[in-house]
Design brief:
Layout (H helix, E strand, L loop, with lengths): L2 H7 L1 H17 L1 H11 L7 H30 L5 H8 L6 H12 L7 H10 L4 H13 L2 H11 L1 H24 L8 H4 L15 H36 L2 H8 L6 H9 L6 H13 L4 H13 L2 H7 L5 H25 L1
């Protein structure tokens, strides 16, 4: 019996064996990275050695974390198709709808550049505008990849605080946009589309089918983002090994009040996903940058990326885009200052 047939015949056994292999590999990362640097013709105490050690440890660590969480969420996401998500949100007004939408954003597999088809689908299903924005803010910013990597790199307190404040930004921002009654700022062709109705797509299937969906998600997601991961870790390794701590602390520390808004302004024109940006966050923090300042930068890169805004222009008028950017930016600024105050 080949591997694929065995996997389909005994999916739970395969998953347990894969989890055990994942754990063994994860525990071996630190000593393996140290030995690998020792084999290279570099001075063990040099900046280059520090950068190499950072890269050789973080690259497989982030890829392992990413593979594990994408597999698990790929299985979970078989219960949350786009059609089912729209159906769950349709029929809920503001308030409860915003909370539900932001919570669904955590476990649904949509990035910021999925904004146009999702937005159109929500309009067709009759989802209120503010509720739609709560989902569109939460889905890329407070997703399972970001939370898992934050937990793996910084611990549960940082991940939990990011979760709570990120959800607060999505819920409050969506509620504020909804109260402004800006439905007229949606492009006319979107409003004129026939309603699709809140039909729920079936996500039935055996556990073997769901496992195959999870493995397909790993091939798709990890296959697409690994260059960003390695690029982000390479930048982080350079920062870790070569950028003086005093240099970063001087303008990204807690004492510089303007550091948080400057980080948000810097992050908006950039585009990266959580897997690519978090290794840079780790390196910045190791050099003395304040956690709130760095996470505000990360949130602006993920939730307010320039490509997302360009795509959103196809369905939203400039005034609504400006309101969206302004409200979310204000929330991110608040998160940055709160993190700096309490951690």
């Amino acid at each position: 019996m080949d591997i694929q047939a065995s996997r389909r015949a005994h999916p739970r056994t395969f998953l347990v064996a894969a989890a055990a292999a994942w754990l063994v590999a994860y525990r071996a990362l630190a000593p393996t990275a140290g030995r690998a640097v020792g084999w290279l013709p570099v001075d063990p105490g040099s900046r280059l050695a520090e950068s190499l050690r950072f890269f050789l440890y973080d690259a497989p660590k982030v890829l392992l974390l990413l593979t594990g969480v994408v597999l698990v969420m790929g299985i979970v996401n078989t219960y949350f198709t786009a059609e089912r998500t729209r159906a769950l949100l349709a029929g809920h007004g503001e308030g409860v709808g915003n909370v539900l939408a932001a919570t669904l954003g955590i476990v649904t597999p949509f990035c910021s550049c999925s904004a146009v088809p999702l937005f159109i689908g929500f309009v067709q299903a009759g989802v209120p505008l503010g509720v739609t924005f709560s989902f569109l803010i939460s889905a890329p910013m407070v997703n399972e990849v970001a939370l898992t990597l934050l937990f793996g790199l910084f611990g549960w307190r940082t991940a939990a605080l990011y979760l709570v404040l990120g959800l607060a930004v999505a819920i409050v921002s969506g509620w504020v946009i909804g109260r402004m009654r800006l439905e007229g700022q949606v492009e006319g062709w979107v409003r004129e589309l026939p309603g699709a109705g809140p039909g729920v797509a079936r996500a039935d299937g055996s556990f073997a089918d769901r496992l195959e969906a999870g493995l397909a998600a790993v091939r798709d997601v990890v296959g697409r983002v690994w260059p960003y991961v390695l690029g982000g870790i390479a930048v982080g390794a350079g920062i870790h090994g070569y950028v003086p701590a005093d240099f970063l602390a001087s303008f990204m520390g807690r004492s510089a009040w303007w550091a948080v808004p400057a980080s948000v302004l810097l992050g908006v024109p950039l585009y990266a996903n959580a897997a690519g940006i978090i290794p840079i966050v780790e390196a910045l923090l190791a050099k003395g940058a304040a956690l709130g300042t760095v996470l505000a930068f990360m949130m602006s890169v993920i939730a307010l990326s320039l490509p997302e805004l360009v795509i959103l222009r196809k369905v939203l008028k400039p005034r609504l885009i400006a309101v969206f950017v302004g409200v979310v930016s204000a929330g991110i600024l608040l998160v940055g200052y709160v993190f700096n105050a309490v951690l």
